[in-house]
Amino acid sequence: MDDNILRYTLLERVMHWAAAVTYVYVLLTGLAFYSPHLYWIAMVLGGAPTSRFWHPWIAVLFMAVVAWMLRAWLGDMQITGADRAWGKAVHLYIANHDDGLPPIDRFNIGQKHFFWTMLYAGCVLLLSGIVLWLPEKLPWSLRAVRSAAILLHVSAALVTIGAFIIHVYMGTAVVRGGFTSIIRGEVSPAWARTHHRLWYYRVTNK
Amino acid sequence: MSAGNLRIQAISGHAGPVPGAGTQRQDQVCKLIDTTTCIGCKACEVACLEWNDLPFRETVFDNTYQTMPETAWNYWNLIQFNEHTAADGSFQWLMRKDQCMHCADPGCLAACPADNAIVQYQNGIVDFQQDYCIGCQYCVTGCPFNIPKFNSHTKKMFKCTLCTDRVSQGLEPACIKACPTGCLHFGGKEDMKALAEMRALQLREHTAHARAGVYDPPGVGGTGVIYVLHDITNPEAYGGLPVNPRVPLSVWLWKGPLKWLGNIAMVGGLIGVSLHYLRFGPKKVDGHGR
Q1: What is the mean pLDDT of chain A?
Q2: Domain for residue B261, yes or no?
Q3: Are the beta carbons of A83 and A112 closer than 8 angstroms?
């Protein structure tokens, strides 16, 4: 189809996949340290000391990409009145009765919540992670900070994992065409009209 | 460190049971430190360095006899000096040999995610296995005594081994051999506990130290290193010995409820999206191909 619509520029796709690859690495190495039953993941990824060495550095890279994303998508990620109306009818979306949903712009409220969840949880992970990264720099009198950092780090990581599961599931299994769009950048007019009608009207000047 | 013929009782970061645990009964060992007869000569420090082939460290002068603030990755045994003025104005030099306490319930081992990096032997010794250490330093957070220390060059953790290599061969730890006043004793836990209690009783009945007692903190299940203190009600005066050391609550929350909650949430999430797909499937696009 020649009338396909550009949904993600090349730069946006590179940005998304840079975030995806770094997140998955940090997720897998983090899971290895989370449970003895998942420690084998660290072996697969080059050994546990290697995983421990790279986990924080790749995480910093991930957060740098998230900062880039924030700059690129700040306008698109604002939650609008249309989003809230859509959010009220989210049960229709979950049950695939999409014809009853109010029209929305480029991203739906779920995608926006996913973005903000990863951003804020990422900030918590980064700050607590710095404490866990260099605990010997912290004096013994501040050991409570270490304890708090461990709990915050695990909790925030679990929040991102929950969000990540839903994100991957929606983007690949439920919203067909979504995965192709983040790889090749294009969607069909019908896809755009169905899922993001306001955006479709905006970019096609209809 | 060489484990010799010691049997393992607990392994850090280990999925499943401990191989060989309980096949052989080994007596609990214990180091007794009588702070009332310690003269702070530091012979135990030298013996520790010599036996474990560690270099001398540069000292840090702080206007007291304290030679450095705390133990280090290559300095596992340090005398803590404290100039202590009691409520009645009497002055004391308190000297405490500081090293790993070899807790029965070791926080370092509980916090460690690396399979086999920390082991607890049947005889109670808690030992780091640097070959398996990943340098994450979670043991620092788990320890209530500020003992595990990080070598930033090799990215490994170190601490007192209770001379595992000597003990496994029927010898006493190097520090015990060197003590000139006999304030250090080594033997079975029950024997050392009895000896310590007898000494504390002697202090209470025959000296002015009416509050003398034995430090064997129950919060960590008791320790493989016990102290006789002049004043058992004030262990903090002995270079910050905690009154009631415990494995931090955060470590328990993290390895207990939080982990189970997380496991249920992650597996539940995966099952949830799978069920959603089976029930509702993919979305259809309006007017597809129009």
Answers
A1: 95
A2: no
A3: yes
Domain residue spans in chain A?
5-204
Sign of the C-alpha dihedral, residues B68, B74, B79, B84? positive
* Gap from A117 CA to chain B (nearest CA, Å): 16
Query: Total structural domains in chain B?
Result: 1
Beta bridge partners of B278: none
The residue range of the domain holding B240 is: 8-247
- Burial-class residue B63 by CB neighbours within 10 Å (0-12, 13-18, 19+): exposed
Structure tokens at B22: 């309980």
> Which residues, numbered 130 to 149 in chain B, qualify as contacts with chain A under a Cβ-Cβ cut-off of 8 Å?
133-138, 140-141, 146, 149
Q: Which value does ipTM take for this structure? A: 0.91
What is the C-alpha to C-alpha distance for residues B105 and B129, in angstroms, rounded to an integer? 18
CB atoms within 10 A of CB A1: 9
Q: Cβ contact (<8 Å) for A150 and B286?
A: no
- Chain A nearest C-alpha distance from B172 (Å): 31
B43 touches chain A (CB under 8 A): no
pLDDT-flagged residues of chain B (< 50): 1-2, 289-290
> What is the CATH T-level fold of the domain A5-204, as seen in this structure?
Fumarate Reductase Cytochrome B subunit (1.20.950)
Domain membership flag for residue B266: no
- Read off the CATH number of the domain in which B85 is found: 3.30.70.20
Does A37 contact B284 at a Cβ distance shorter than 8 Å? no
> Is B62 within a domain?
yes
